[in-house]
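Student:
Attend to each token:
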Amino acid sequence: MPPSDVTSLLHLNTGDTNETDMIAIGLQEVNSMINKRLKDALFTDQWSELFMDVLSPFHFVLVSTVRMQGVILLVFAKYYHLPFLQDIQTDCTRTGLGGYWGNKGGVSVRLSVFGHMLCFLNCHLPAHLEKAEQRKDDFTTILHMQQCQQQLEGQAASGILDHDIVFWFGDLNFRIESLDIRFVKYAIANSLLSQLWEKDQLNIAKSTWPILSGFQEGPLNFPPTFKFDVGTNQYDTR
């Protein structure tokens, strides 16, 4: 269930909202039981309703949304930009159970923004420490499967990586490699996060896997986000 207030989550209380033109929100593990899916098919799901209600006073409108079971992607923009957003396409790729189940995979929204081709790609990749190679394989599958349904006039962005800018995010499930959990907790408690970066599976993949060479990640100035004690921001005391 969504929380009652997502103001801080969306940084709407920082005073920077006037500087923000677009907001893309990726959700994973949204309730996708069959009775919930049937209700959401008839009505807007609760998460989407909440974001629309919260963002509309700031002049944002929902440009596009795509859902694959529990994976949802919503793209908002200021209403006065709408005439300059064109060629909007969505796609989804299932990778769970050999491609038959949408609990894992990726959803995307592709569009032209003032003539520049942008792609937002929200993924939920396989879990567990030892599945790093499968995560990379699934990402490759998603990139291969998601080709534009139609060639856009005057545009060369037929595949994900052909766009001018690609935003890749979600529950990517890359873990910290080869470090004892006691050291991980010690490093977190003592703000020694740089010692964890070197063993981050995604950082390792970026230096060894050519397909990631064009991606840039913001600074990891926050503790690992998996796992927390349920209902808290306390890092896994079990």
Summary: The longest strand covers residues 101-113.
